[in-house]
Write a structure and sequence with these properties.
The complex is a heterotetramer of chains A (300), B (263), C (376) and D (410). Chain A is built from 11 helices and 2 strands, in the order ααααβααααβααα. With 300 residues, chain A is mostly helical. Chain A has a single domain, classed as ABC transporter involved in vitamin B12 uptake, BtuC, CATH 1.10.3470. Classes of the chains: A mainly alpha (300), B alpha/beta (263), C alpha/beta (376), D mainly alpha (410).
Chain lengths: 300, 263, 376, 410
């Protein structure tokens, strides 16, 4: 039973990490129907920015708490700026282009950003400072749930609640929902669609940056390539949950994380990803729009 | 009277808790032009979608009877392409052409279900395939001539005028050799002159042996064209009969004009 | 050079293809062309770039001394992204450009794909990092040499250490599903089973780049392993070890040359303490090694990366062999490599008939106070 | 001529990029030695660079606007120059012949390396044309195309290793295996909508690669299979150079064959059905087209070509391992199709040649190569989202009113 609980929490942590990235995918997809392949890179840049800022601050002797806060803010600010710029440069001119053009643009952007960081920084793995402290009160259960797991779980929950609130009740959230449903109508009722899309990219990127910071701190290392795998997994999770749906992205991520964890724990980690993708295929066969995706009503 | 070519009994379609179509009966005889009318949201298009297999009905039966051989088949739950193959073709309320394909190609697609060649034929272009291809082109051209679009064969469908697009949809549907043609608001968005041309086109099609079921809001067109009319409101059939009968039916007037008006 | 190539191609295309047909025998050009091939971009760039730097430094040193037998050494650097299909293009390009000897490739797979091309052209190849046993032991590639121990030799060292020194009874063998890591892990598994003194309780691969390794770590714990043998590179190793530390596990962690890298200690930090890794014998007192590292620090203002010393040694060995042979002819170079000993950062070495380095001592290391210390 | 407002805008853009790239470009930290390297000159480069680029792109846009304003009427005549060549057989046929002659003469004028690179590029032409059937023509977004490529390659590698089967025997077998797998996968997933299909095919591609990586007894795992026989020429073994030339001609022949077949497929009943399916699925079904069957045929035909090229790949490199079949490979093949122009055969050929030859000739840029590759993909899409060459539809001519047809196709 202990083993089961351990795996369960491991899966939950992993799922929460996916969720922070998947939210960005799902928001962007919900609004402009684009698989933003560069999102994984935004996450990577968030982690890198956090790494750079945190290291600089620690060299200059700032206190730990200040480092966490400043590094987190910097990661969010710069990730959002990248997200915003990427949208403006690579996607906005393609708003009316054939469906696959933005996808290729996104793939190109992803390759570009990876190599940009590789060249400007390094190809090596770098040690990420342990920003999350080891809490003393967690010590008795540390062999099951570590402090960083706890922080990740709590952060994801808070972010999730905050985001739901934002989408449901704020002005920008309502504008987002309107734009997602019908862009033309949104324009007609006076919503600045361009601004809403930018806002979506900014929020999604900031979430990815938080994810980047937490994960890097959790596993203690980064390099320029970490965005790729995490990005694909998060995207899988978003589709699994029903792409376009925010609770769906979180649910999908948790399901994916738990599946991988249990697959490794009870079967073999050799086929961990095979399990993950098979689950995706199976779920989509029986529920073609994902776990919480709205079944598409064909309007004829 | 001979057997009905389309006989719908108790057709119901639920979306969640809402009954978009509620226990509707309908029949069409060979050679008839039948209209289905009703206020917006009455469930007419949903009814069409059930007939043509785009939705599968929650309950009820749809029977098709091919007038050529008298074969009777139940088509509810069949895939749309199978139903088209059986001889019922349709047009769409919001025009659904293949926008970047040429006018002729749009009609040629309609010939798909009446022809056979596949990979082998495509690659080797054996005599049978060539003959078939020629037949497809000629028939399609003939149909385009009938609807008056033969001058625009190589034009991309999206470049046609609105009225021409509607006619192209009819041509495309005709290419599938239907004995029953379903037209969903064929006159929507047309100017009076175009509508007039449409009326004569529909008459011509009917006289060539195709029966027609149409949804339409243009009452002048409906009244002048139809042999019989079915009226739906809130998913239910509320009246049926000849144009005169329907015109004077109090339930119909109420549905169209609201509660307070007396017949 | 590279842009000049195009012009040359258009002008003397035919002549060039003739030149191709004749094996690059003897002293044809006025420089000695040392090819460097490996991953220089993409996710494995960090394993290939140090080799380029090593080659640059060695060549600069040779040229500063006036070159080899009066000829300057010229570098031809080509990227293969560690992909076999790209490696064949890279190899063909190097051969077409008239390369005399090649330092590379980095990954075993790419090396395997490229070797037939060099063999055909009579070019000697020396890899700093391709450890697949078949490369030397199959006898298929008489032109192949390497300055790193093959997987089986390394696995043997690790297993002997785990069983005889640590006294492990239950061993979990973990790998990174890669060419190198999995190959090594399989040898380790076979050796453990053969020894009869310990059992393999777990044999599994982890996905490189995965965001979290908790599950596999829990599994190691559950299986009651008293030692983990990991086949793979340092990023995964440091993730696993820090995850183990987080779970308060004290299982002995034994790994390979891919982990015996200072970057591992830097990245894993405190968690690296107590980790064992196999690697070439301690070179910290070897003046050649000290000089090589100092040269890197001076030139690039940073510590050298993976396989730097192996690459440095390979470059030295290759150029030395050409110097001693007085020719770039394959047979002569091969003979010189086998007979002439050379002082390199990995020791005073020559090569056996199969192509493996002789004189590269092998040892186990333990991380103590942030440094790899040889276990005597 | 250049408005001050634009200069201001460009200045703002350059400031923005200087800010954006600040942490990554300017600061470099060494966490071990605990030193910080402030590379301020990078910031100046970025600022000046983005200023210049922004002005240049603005100038380009202004000129483009002016040009399109002036030439609105004559545009129909001048613009689709490529299109007209493609449409007119009297231009097209001699041109194709000239290209073919050039292709045949290629190995005599260029080095083995060039021939080898060209072979690779032509293999991607075939892969692109195969995927074009699936994505470009039938509109099914397939992100796991590389799986079928892998199936072809491993078919040859394994059959050659275990049963010593020759290249020519396995070539069709590899293709058919891949096609069969295409059907097998297609059945459950083809009813999924566009982007869902994309992720499922991506997952499928990964599954195939992971199986090859993990199932050692079957595939020898990540260390791969070496010493695969090169194709023999009527039983003769060939030298390395000869082998490269031979495979080159083989691939040229395959390209010609593929173009022939794909062209005929596109201008057939089946090809029309694919196009229609891409444009409007519901209308398509309503016109009596069996959606599932038509999609399956497209999917498995696309897979068939990937399988064929896979076999050639294994024979060419004489070595296969799973590292060659990653998602990036699928992405590159997809980029070929989209960049070239969806559905257009000539476009795909151009796309493949550009995308595959470009990184090879960009080797001069060495480490900046992939950066340039990614950047060029974005720029190309932004300025030419329809691809380099868009598809030319067949046109029909009818003499007067008699429905007698003479048709010509491109």
């Amino acid at each position: 039973m202990d083993y089961f609980i351990e795996l369960f929490f491991g899966g939950l942590t992993r799922g929460s990490i996916y969720a922070l990235i998947a939210l960005g995918y799902t928001m962007v997809y919900g609004i402009i129907g684009l698989i933003n392949f560069a999102h994984g890179e935004i996450y990577m840049i968030g982690a890198f920015t956090a790494f750079i800022v945190a290291t600089v601050l620690s060299i200059y002797g700032f206190p730990a708490l200040a480092i966490i806060i400043i590094a987190g803010l910097a990661a969010a600010v710069w990730s959002s700026s990248y997200g915003y710029t990427v949208e403006k440069v690579a996607y906005r001119p393609l708003r009316k282009a054939p469906r696959l053009a933005p996808l290729i643009s996104a793939i190109g952007m992803s390759i570009f950003l990876q190599n940009y960081v590789l060249l400007a920084q390094t190809s090596d793995f770098l040690p990420f400072p342990a920003l999350i402290p080891e809490f003393a009160f967690m010590e008795p259960v540390a062999h099951i749930v570590g402090s960083s797991d706890l922080v990740i779980l709590v952060t994801t929950a808070v972010v999730m609640i905050g985001l739901t609130f934002l989408i449901k009740f704020t002005k920008i959230g309502k504008a987002m929902r309107a734009t997602a449903q019908d862009k033309t109508m949104a324009v007609l009722v006076g919503i600045n669609v361009d601004r809403v899309i930018s806002a979506t990219f900014i929020i999604g990127s900031a979430l990815a940056a938080i994810g980047g910071l937490l994960i890097a701190s959790h596993i203690g290392q980064i390099n320029f390539y970490i965005g790729f795998i995490a990005g694909i997994k998060a995207f899988t999770a978003a589709v699994l949950g029903g792409i376009g749906s925010i609770p769906g992205a979180v649910l999908g991520s948790l399901v994916l994380g738990l599946t991988e964890s249990f697959a490794t724990g009870y079967v073999s980690s050799d086929y961990e990803d095979v399990f993950a993708f098979s689950l995706l295929v199976l779920i989509l066969i029986f529920k073609p729009s994902g776990l919480l995706g709205k079944a598409e009503t064909k309007k004829v | 009277m001979s057997k009905a070519i389309l006989k719908v009994t108790g057709l119901t379609k639920n979306f969640g808790g809402i009954k978009a179509v509620d226990n509707v009966d309908l029949d069409i005889q060979q050679g008839e032009i039948v209209a289905l009318i009703g206020p917006n949201g009455a469930g007419k298009t949903t009814f069409f979608n059930c007939l043509t297999g785009i939705y599968s009905p929650s309950s009820g039966d749809i029977m098709l009877c091919n007038p050529k051989n008298g074969n009777e088949i139940t088509v509810n739950g069949m895939k749309p392409n199978k139903i088209t193959e059986k001889g019922m073709a349709r047009t769409f309320q919001n025009i659904r052409l293949f926008p970047t394909m040429s006018v002729l190609e749009n009609v040629m697609i309609g010939r798909h279900c009446r022809t056979k060649s596949l990979i082998f034929g495509a690659i080797f272009r054996n005599p049978a395939t060539r003959r078939e291809e020629e037949e497809i082109i000629e028939t399609s051209y003939g149909i385009l001539k009938k609807v008056g679009l033969h001058k625009e064969v190589n034009e991309e469908a999206r470049n046609l005028s609105y009225g021409a697009q509607r006619r192209l949809e009819i041509a495309r549907a005709l290419a599938t050799e239907p004995f029953l043609l379903l037209l969903d608001e064929p006159a929507a968005g047309m100017n009076p002159k175009e509508t007039e041309a449409l009326v004569s086109l529909i008459r011509k099609i009917c006289s060539e042996g195709h029966s027609i079921l149409l949804i339409e809001h243009d009452m002048k067109l409906v009244m002048s064209l139809s042999d019989r009319i079915f009226v739906m409101d809130y998913g239910k059939k509320i009246a049926q009969g000849t144009p005169e009968e329907v015109r004077s039916n109090p339930a119909v007037i109420k549905a169209y004009l609201g509660e307070d008006v007396d017949a | 050079m590279k842009s000049a190539l195009k012009k040359k191609l258009f002008v003397t295309a035919v002549a060039l293809s003739f030149a191709m047909a004749v094996p690059a025998a003897g002293i044809a050009g006025d420089t000695i062309k040392l090819g460097v091939a490996g991953a220089q971009s993409g996710d494995l760039a960090s394993y290939g770039l140090p080799t380029v730097k090593a080659a640059e430094l060695v060549v600069a040193e040779y040229n500063a001394k006036g070159g080899i037998n009066g000829k300057k050494v010229e570098l031809l650097i080509e990227d293969d992204v560690c992909k076999p299909e790209v490696a064949t293009n890279t190899a063909t390009k190097l051969v077409t450009d008239g390369v005399d000897v090649v330092l590379g490739h980095i990954c075993s797979g790419a090396t395997k794909a490229a070797l037939p091309i060099y063999k055909e052209a009579g070019v000697v190849v020396m890899s700093p990092s391709a450890t697949n046993p078949g490369l030397t032991q199959s006898g298929d590639y008489p032109n192949f040499f390497r300055t790193i121990a093959s997987d089986d030799a390394q696995a043997k060292t690790e297993v002997d250490f785990a069983i005889n020194v640590i006294g492990a009874k239950k061993i979990a063998v973990i790998h990174d599903k890669g060419d190198y890591g999995k190959g090594l892990a399989e040898f380790a598994k076979t050796f453990i089973e053969k020894s009869g003194k310990a059992e393999v309780v777990l044999f599994e691969g982890v996905t490189p780049g995965a965001v979290d390794y908790t599950a596999i770590v829990q599994k190691i714990k559950r299986k009651g392993a008293d030692a983990v043998i990991f086949g793979g590179y340092h990023p995964e190793a440091s993730k696993i070890i820090s995850m183990m530390k987080k779970k308060r596990m004290t299982t002995t962690f034994i790994s390979d040359d891919g982990v015996k890298d200072d970057t591992f200690i830097k990245v894993a930090g405190k968690n690296a303490e107590g980790v064992y890794a196999s690697g070439p014998q301690d070179n910290s007192t070897n003046p050649v090694s000290v000089a090589a590292i100092a040269a890197h620090k001076k030139a690039y203002n940073s510590d050298p990366g993976a396989f730097y010393e192996n690459a440095y040694s390979a470059a030295l060995a290759l150029l030395n062999a050409i110097e001693k042979a007085g020719s770039t002819d394959m047979a002569a170079v091969v003979k010189a490599l086998q007979t002439e000993k050379v002082e390199t950062p990995v020791g005073n070495i020559n090569f056996d008939a199969k192509g493996d380095a002789v004189g590269v001592g092998f040892a186990m290391y333990k991380v103590e106070n942030g440094k790899y210390v040889e276990v005597k | 001529m250049f408005p001050v407002k634009e200069l201001k805008r460009s200045a703002l853009i350059s400031l923005w990029f200087a800010f954006l790239t600040f942490p990554i470009m300017v600061i470099k930290v060494n966490p071990i030695e605990r030193t910080v390297d402030w590379r301020w000159d990078n910031m100046y480069f970025v600022a000046i660079g983005s200023f210049v680029i922004s002005i240049l792109s603005k100038v380009y846009l202004i000129r483009k606007e002016r040009r399109s304003g002036r030439k609105k009427i004559s545009r129909a005549l001048t613009e689709p120059f490529m299109q007209r060549i493609l449409r007119e057989p009297r231009f097209l046929y001699p041109l194709s012949l000239a290209i073919l002659v050039f292709a045949i003469a290629f190995p005599y004028f260029f080095s083995t390396y060039q021939t080898n690179i060209m072979t690779t590029a032509l293999m991607y032409v075939v892969l692109g044309l195969g995927l074009n059937i699936v994505v470009g023509v039938a509109g099914l977004l397939d992100l796991g195309y590389v799986a079928f490529y892998a199936v072809g390659a491993y078919s040859y590698a394994l059959l050659n290793m275990h049963f010593n089967m020759g290249f020519w025997t396995v070539l069709p077998i590899g293709g058919l295996f891949a096609a069969f797998l295409g059907v097998l996968l297609g059945f459950p997933v083809l009813r999924l909508r566009g982007d869902y299909l994309a992720i499922v095919t991506l997952g499928f591609g990964e599954i195939i690669r992971l199986i090859l990586e993990n199932w050692n007894d079957f595939s020898q795992g990540p260390s791969g299979i070496a010493n695969i026989s090169r194709p023999s020429f009527f039983g003769m073994e060939m030298s390395f150079d000869g082998g490269i030339t031979y495979i080159y001609y083989l691939v040229v022949a395959l390209v010609v064959f593929t173009i022939f077949v794909v062209n005929r497929l596109q201008n057939s009943r089946l090809g029309r059905a694919w196009l229609a399916l891409r444009e409007d699925e519901i209308a398509c079904q309503a016109m009596g087209i069996d959606k599932t069957k038509t999609k399956l045929i497209a999917f498995s035909l696309g897979a068939f070509w990937a399988g064929l090229v896979g076999v050639i790949f294994a024979a060419k490199t004489t070595f296969v391992n799973p590292a060659s079949f990653t998602f990036l490979e699928s992405a590159i093949i997809l980029s070929i199709v989209v960049l070239g122009g969806m559905g257009s055969i000539v476009g795909v050929i151009f796309g493949a040649l550009i995308l595959i030859l470009m990184p090879e000739y960009l080797r001069a840029l060495s480490e900046y190569r992939m950066l340039a590759f990614g950047g060029i993909l974005v720029v190309m899409m932004v300025f030419k989202p329809d691809g380099i060459i868009s598809n030319v539809r067949r046109s029909y001519r009818f003499k007067k009113h008699i429905s007698h047809q003479t048709s010509d196709q491109s």
